[in-house]
Write a structure and sequence with these properties.
Elements (H helix, E strand, L loop, with lengths): L5 H4 L3 H22 L1 H9 L21 H6 L15 E5 L7 E5 L1 H17 L7 E4 L7 H12 L3 E3 L6 H10 L4 E4 L1 H13 L11 E5 L5 H11 L2 E8 L4 E7 L6 E3 L4 E6 L13 E7 L10 E7 L1 E2 L11 E2 L4 E2 L4 E3 L2 E3 L1 H11 L3 E12 L2 E10 L8 H19 L4 E5 L14 E3 L3
Parallel strand pairs: 3-4, 3-5, 5-6, 6-7, 18-21, 19-20
Antiparallel strand pairs: 1-2, 7-8, 8-9, 9-14, 10-11, 11-12, 12-15, 13-14, 16-17, 18-19
Bound molecules: 5'-O-[hydroxy(phenylacetyl)phosphoryl]adenosine.
5'-O-[hydroxy(phenylacetyl)phosphoryl]adenosine binds next to helix 6, strand 7, strand 8 and strand 12.
Length: 433
């Protein structure tokens, strides 16, 4: 087994604890002295940097929310003078105001290293051809993986998102071994490959690096089968750096968090109390080495759990289980919590003749929530094969109702009729809002 940085990745718990404690003390000192909103938050609860003696004191610290970044738009949470910021990224949200993040030279270097560690763990080396179809620009996906792959001296193809026919041409001609994009874009590429009359054997792909949105293990199996690759999960968020906060190794058994840089906690989103390892709750991160925009106990809104025990690969880093979804994406239908990932998993498990493309619509009729799930038929079923479609609809209906605990209206629609996505998928229309 080889590692990008064995000392850090395979460090014993006690050695790691010393590093985490030292870094936590540094970052708390840094934000208290340089970020007014943090000084205020800490003063309000009477907490001084000297009260933090080690990583075990982390729960004394206040949380940070996305609203803190919005209220201090654009640079009010930055901890260094503006001329030390060498890169800005931003993500858009529901309120329209951007969440802006800034990086010093060291931050870019550490972010690149975190992505490099992840990519190394799945086999990327000098000369491996890495096709990056995440968007470049203010979104962190493209540039984050670009710098990580270049750090390893891989051969980077910086295609960005869009122009699918050109993507296929480049994938084929440059013989990329690694495809980096959202899982929903991978589905779109699979459809286009078939439409163009290619097969997976026309490509040289071996691995996929898929993230930026939640996706299920069933989706992984579909993509792996269709592209003949191993599909790895990569997790991250711009506030904490971008892609590469955590990534799966070759054992595909949870995303290894680069926890010397980004320290994870799982909290109960209602009581805000930390939860023990293995329990599901909201994922919270503290950045331990960031200079430009250090964040303390940032509430991601992602629901997840830390997998107990150590991975077969020998790394001692904490691992995240598949993210179930964002608390904001959770639909409450007739009082029942429903995650799109539960529906995705039913669709993919149900029948090979059903495609992975779906859309969820929620309406309110006569004061009652109504859930409609449109799912595309696979290309081999003609839309006039009424009996087959009726049988498939019943089968899927039963599977979804039993998984989510409420009835939904399932509609099988013709192949190719639902919207495709180049970046993050948006599969929900909630007309109740
Ligand atoms: O999506 C960074 C990224 C780019 C990660 C490319 C992986 C690959 P944001 O646009 O700030 O950053 O969105 C962050 O996306 O809080 C999660 O809700 C979701 N997310 C990211 N990766 C995963 C994943 C990038 N692997 C938000 N599984 C996060 C589930 C994910 N959700």
């Amino acid at each position: 087994m080889s590692y990008f940085d064995k000392t850090i990745e395979c460090m014993s718990y006690n050695d790691k604890k010393n590093i985490l404690s030292k870094n936590l003390k540094n970052v708390v000192e840094h934000v208290y002295n340089n970020v007014l909103p943090y000084r205020k938050k800490m003063d309000e609860i009477g907490l001084k940097p000297s009260d933090i003696n080690g990583i075990e004191d982390i729960s004394k610290l206040p949380f940070t929310l996305k609203s803190d970044l919005r209220e201090n738009y654009p640079f009010g949470m930055f901890a260094v003078p503006s001329d030390e910021i060498i890169r800005l990224h931003a993500s858009s949200g529901t309120t329209g105001k951007l969440t802006v993040v800034g990086y010093t030279k060291n931050d870019i270097d550490n972010w690149s290293k975190s992505c490099a560690r992840g990519l190394y763990g799945i086999g990327v080396r000098k000369g491996t051809v890495v096709h990056i179809a995440y968007g470049y620009g203010l979104f962190t996906g493209g540039l984050g993986l670009h710098y990580g792959a270049e750090y390893l001296e891989a051969t980077v193809v910086p295609v960005s998102s869009g122009n699918t026919s050109r993507q296929l041409m480049l994938l084929k001609d440059f013989k990329a071994e690694v495809l980096c994009c959202t899982p929903s874009y991978a589905l779109h590429l699979i459809d286009e490959i078939k439409k163009c009359g290619y097969t997976k054997d026309d490509f040289n792909l071996k691995y996929g690096v898929f993230g930026a949105e939640s996706w299920t293990n069933e989706m992984r199996l579909t993509i792996e089968k269709e592209l003949g690759i191993k599909a790895y999960d990569i997790y991250g968020l711009s506030e904490i750096s971008g892609p590469g906060v955590a990534m799966e190794c070759e054992f595909q058994n949870g995303c290894h968090v680069q926890d010397d840089m980004f320290y994870p906690e799982i909290i109960d989103p209602d009581t805000l109390e930390p939860l023990p390892i293995g329990e599901e709750g909201e994922l919270v991160f503290t950045t331990l080495t960031k200079e430009g925009l250090p964040l303390i106990r940032y509430r991601t809104r992602d629901l997840c759990r830390i997998i107990p025990g150590q991975c077969q690969c020998g790394r001692t880093t904490l691992r995240l289980d598949k993210v179930k979804g964002r608390t904001d994406d959770m639909l409450i239908i007739r009082g029942v919590n429903v995650f799109p990932s539960q529906i995705e998993s039913c669709i993919l498990k149900c029948d090979d003749r059903i495609s992975p493309h779906f859309h969820i619509t929620v309406d309110r009729e006569n004061n009652l929530d109504k859930l409609t799930i449109e799912v595309e038929l696979g290309p081999e079923i003609a839309f006039d094969e009424i009996t087959v479609i009726q049988a498939l609809t019943q089968k899927l209906d039963a599977a979804i109702s039993s998984a989510i605990g409420i009835r939904a209206k399932v509609m099988l629609v013709s192949n190719g009729s639902l919207k495709r996505f180049e970046g993050k998928a948006n599969r929900i229309t909630d007309n109740r809002k």
